[in-house]
Amino acid sequence: MQIENVVTRVVHGLLALAAAIIFLLSFLVVADVIGRGAFNSPVKGTPEIVSMSIVIICFLLAAYAVQSGAMLRTDVMISLFGRRGYAFGDLISGILGIVFFLLIVWGSFEPALHAWSSGEFEGEGALRVPVWPARFVVMFGSALVVAIYLGQAALAVLALMRPDDAPPPVSTTH
């Protein structure tokens, strides 16, 4: 099995996990609203759980956004330069994405370990939500995005080196 297929399966698994979290959060928020309005008793810890979940969801979905090509792109300028313009744009975006998400991985490593070892939590009182799951998801999701950007940058380099009349490389991720 190719590494690209493995990455695609992982990305789609993370997409399904994010969808499940969103689905479950909707029940929590509805229960909180009903509890607050009807019984003057909200579900304890809802703001903390929702805020942590939003971070987790974003980084679970980041790899899918990059792999599916849904990240922001300005085709107007790149299209003026033809096929090589697209390849060059993909290379530059890949390099910038690699640098950006590597910085996130690097900056998240120490806080994730600290959150794990110290038992860091969010919230006060009845419900305290651990911080380490969100910190490790940020680190893992960013590392996966780096891997995807590396693959896309490599394909862009191959496209730039290919003669104009050669067929484009085949990618199963799009």
Describe the structure.
20% of the residues are buried. A two-stranded antiparallel ribbon has the order 1-2. It is elongated and about 70 Å long. The protein has 174 residues and is an all-alpha fold. The chain has helices at 3-39, 46-67, 75-79, 82-118, 132-161; strands spanning 121-122, 129-130. Helix 2 (46-67) packs parallel to helix 5. The model has no long low-confidence stretch (mean pLDDT 88). A hairpin with a 6-residue loop joins strand 1 (121-122) and strand 2 (129-130).
Secondary-structure map:
Blueprint: H1 3-39, H2 46-67, H3 75-79, H4 82-118, E1 121-122, E2 129-130, H5 132-161
Antiparallel strand pairs: 1-2
So what's the overall shape?
elongated
The average pLDDT value, as a whole number, equals 88
Q: Main sheet: which strands, in order across? A: 1-2
Strand content: under 5%
Class based on secondary structure composition and strand pairing = mainly alpha
Task: Enumerate how many helices there are, as a single number.
Answer: 5
Rg value: 21 Å
